């Protein structure tokens, strides 16, 4: 075979921000502060939801799970990125790359299905308010989260296994982390079937949840338009606004990365979108949900007042 005399890839080299060599320490400081702020924000959100019984509702249950999910998937990527900004040797083993890809895809895919579950929650709350507590009981919420995780696990396992069973003999340079398209481009050989299956899985994890969300919002909008007062329509729609913003950001970035034709890949574009997807999006999503929500802000103020009172 033509690969017989070529060296098998045993590790991958992260290029990172090598073109900005003079700014490595500044980038480290900026990304570290953003990462710590994101972690702190998510801890505050989850703690407030757990401590305040007024927030023990399906919507806030899903928000807490969303915050935990985003904290976990940034933990898979960002610490390694921060270390590489200061390290001379920016490498990851072949197995380490596979593990990183598996957990990243698992959490991202679960995230997509979780957003669909949140859309269903908003549909039930607006279109079936009298049966909301029955249709969205704790068991149902746990079942939806478990289903989202199961879908994410299966898709991630299938995709990662298929990619890392491909031969890698030539280049081993990646930009920031082990994502699907950058690693796939390094494979020495890709069969049409492999590319097709990976593309179909990507479409499935993006399109199916998005279709479920769209169906939910068609029914939601139909129900809102039947509300006689403009104030009532505004209040009903305002409960969905944060979810819509997060869905738009999530699917916009994900579609740009995973559903582009292969000829349109650009390293500089991938770098910008990857940084946004792994650092900025998890930072803004919890803030969008919490800062736009009067009920959550009231609960946070009560929790801070109670904490300061206990300390004094």
Automatic annotation (TrEMBL):
Domain of life the protein comes from: Eukaryota
Subcellular location(s) per record: Cell membrane
SUPFAM superfamilies, per database record: Family A G protein-coupled receptor-like (SSF81321)
Annotated G-protein coupled receptors family 1 profile domain residues: 41-289
Record organism: Ovis ammon polii
Role played: Putative odorant or sperm cell receptor. Odorant receptor.
Topology versus the membrane: Multi-pass membrane protein
Species classification: Eukaryota, Metazoa, Chordata, Craniata, Vertebrata
GO cellular component: plasma membrane
Pfam family, one: 7tm_4
InterPro entries assigned: GPCR_Rhodpsn, GPCR_Rhodpsn_7TM, Olfact_rcpt
Designated name of the protein: G-protein coupled receptors family 1 profile domain-containing protein
PANTHER family with a match to the protein in the record: OLFACTORY RECEPTOR
Keyword Mitochondrion: no
Molecular-function GO terms, alphabetical: G protein-coupled receptor activity; olfactory receptor activity
Transmembrane segments: 26-51, 58-78, 98-120, 132-158, 196-225, 237-259, 271-291
Keyword vocabulary terms for this entry: Cell membrane, G-protein coupled receptor, Glycoprotein, Membrane, Olfaction, Receptor, Sensory transduction, Transducer, Transmembrane, Transmembrane helix
């Amino acid at each position: 075979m033509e690969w017989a005399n070529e060296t098998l890839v045993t590790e991958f080299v992260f290029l990172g921000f090598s073109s900005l060599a003079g700014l490595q320490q500044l980038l480290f400081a900026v990304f570290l502060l953003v990462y710590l702020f994101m972690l702190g924000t998510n801890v505050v959100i989850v703690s407030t939801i757990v401590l305040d019984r007024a927030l023990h509702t399906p919507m806030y249950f899903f928000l807490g799970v969303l915050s935990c999910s985003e904290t976990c998937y940034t933990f898979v990527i960002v610490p390694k990125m921060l270390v590489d900004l200061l390290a001379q040797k920016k490498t990851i083993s072949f197995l380490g790359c596979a593990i990183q890809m598996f957990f990243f895809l698992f959490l991202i895919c679960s995230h997509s299905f979780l957003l669909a579950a949140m859309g269903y929650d908003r549909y039930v709350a607006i279109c079936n308010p009298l049966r909301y507590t029955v249709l969205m009981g704790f068991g149902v919420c746990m079942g939806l989260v478990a289903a989202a995780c199961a879908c994410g696990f299966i898709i991630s396992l299938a995709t990662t296994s298929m990619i890392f069973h491909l031969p890698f003999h030539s280049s081993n340079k990646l930009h920031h982390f082990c994502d699907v398209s950058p690693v796939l481009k390094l494979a020495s050989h890709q069969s049409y079937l492999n590319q097709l299956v990976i593309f179909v899985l990507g479409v499935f994890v993006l399109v199916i949840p998005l279709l479920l969300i769209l169906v939910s919002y068609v029914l939601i909008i139909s129900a809102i338009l039947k509300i006689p007062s403009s104030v009532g329509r505004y209040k009903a729609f305002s409960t969905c606004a944060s979810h819509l913003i997060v869905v738009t950001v999530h699917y916009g970035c994900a579609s740009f990365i995973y559903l582009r034709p292969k000829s349109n890949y650009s390293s500089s574009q991938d770098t910008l979108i990857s940084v946004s997807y792994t650092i900025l999006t998890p930072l803004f999503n919890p803030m969008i949900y919490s800062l736009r929500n009067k009920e959550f802000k009231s609960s946070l103020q009560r929790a801070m007042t109670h904490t300061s009172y206990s300390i004094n």
